[in-house]
Design brief:
alpha+beta, three-stranded antiparallel sheet, single chain, eight-stranded mixed sheet
Length: about 350
């Protein structure tokens, strides 16, 4: 491990020297590439240097135990007691930092939320989840752009698709994919009975044109007139777009914009991300090669997380974690949940590496 760390530090210093050259700014593509590579190595180099400094201090103080001055020996003992516990902790951090990185972690995402089992109550919870992710994005200073939505008369959402752009969005939200179950008393329930509903969430890394090769001959593009709830016309021109990717059968509809070109651009962004996700799923032996495997069917029995409102708790079933802070979570304070999920999957990855 330490041989690899030495190589990383040398590479980091080479990149640092390259960034110090004035002429690098003349080639912006090169500058971006070198800056990103430098930043990617920064965290591991920082911890490695800290580890080496602590190890050196420890060695120096162990030598001082042989000093003829008893006061110096005593001071050295105190330093050793303080330094020794730091090394295992720093070593553990280094092991985590050396784990293979998900190449999608730096990407923006396409978020899809769909109401599943539970009728109007599921649609209302879909709207609550969309607000939760929007608040989380706001906390992280990310940008949310709604791309498509289908609402209900009660203020719920049958479906919403949005893009979220910012720093390492996919790395933070990738564990949100799956079925989210809610247990609460609906506003329409006169008997005060708790109902269980389900909502599916899909998190897809936003694909760029270079990530996915889409041939024009594989696309069928239909143009039609956009309409609002109940068939009410919201547009007098044929601006709504339906794009079908013939080889996979994927269909994307976008009608929120008044411009046909804007709707087509948004639809293509969603289509690229869905196709990239399909490629990712095929590449992973432990996952099915369909998008449905990620989000489930919306049935009550398939769930990654339960939001129990009467008890004010949120339980993530993948890691057996229950937090009694549901109000804060629904306000977008997801950090504690995400930290626990990241730690769990890092530990799993380390276990696999050790096998």
């Amino acid at each position: 491990m330490f041989g690899k760390l030495e190589e990383i530090e040398i590479k980091f210093e080479e990149l640092e020297q390259e960034l110090a050259q004035p002429d690098i700014f003349n080639d912006q593509e090169r500058y971006k590439k070198v800056s990103k590579a430098h930043a990617d190595l920064g965290d591991v180099v920082k911890v490695f240097r800290q580890y080496k400094a602590v190890a050196q201090d420890l060695a120096d103080n162990k030598e001082l135990l042989n000093d003829s001055d008893e006061d110096i020996q005593e001071m050295a003992k105190m330093e050793i007691e303080e330094l020794e516990p730091q090394l295992p902790s720093l070593e553990e951090q280094l092991k985590i930092l050396l784990l293979p990185k998900d190449p999608m972690d730096d990407k923006n995402i396409i978020l899809e939320i769909r109401a599943g089992t539970g009728g109007d109550e599921a649609a209302l919870f879909a709207a609550d989840l969309y607000r939760m992710y929007s608040r989380y994005a706001e906390i992280n200073k990310w940008k949310v752009e709604e791309m498509s939505s289908s609402s209900t008369g009660s203020g719920g959402l049958k479906e919403v698709i949005a893009s979220i752009a910012g720093d390492k969005v996919y790395s933070k939200l990738k564990y949100e994919s799956g079925t989210h179950r809610v247990q609460r008393v609906p506003a329409t329930e006169s008997q005060g009975r708790i109902h269980t509903s389900a909502v599916t969430v899909a998190i897809m890394a936003e694909a760029e044109e270079v990530d996915v090769d889409i041939r024009n001959e594989d696309l069928r593009v239909d143009v039609f007139r956009a309409s609002g709830p109940g068939g009410q016309s919201v547009n007098t021109t044929d601006s709504a777009i339906r794009i079908t990717h013939v080889p996979t059968g994927l269909v994307v509809i976008c009608q929120d914009e008044k411009s046909q070109h804007k709707n087509k651009a948004k639809a293509m962004k969603v289509l690229r991300s869905r196709l990239l996700q399909l490629e990712q799923e095929k590449a992973k032996a432990e996952e099915d090669a369909t998008r449905r495997s990620q989000v489930g069917s919306g049935d009550r029995s398939e769930r990654i997380r339960t939001y129990n409102f009467p008890q004010g708790r949120c339980s993530d079933h993948r890691i057996n974690l229950t937090l009694h802070s549901l109000h804060k979570i629904m306000e977008g304070e997801l950090e504690e949940l995400h930290d626990a999920l990241i730690s769990h999957y890092q530990a799993e990855a380390m276990k696999r590496q050790g096998e």
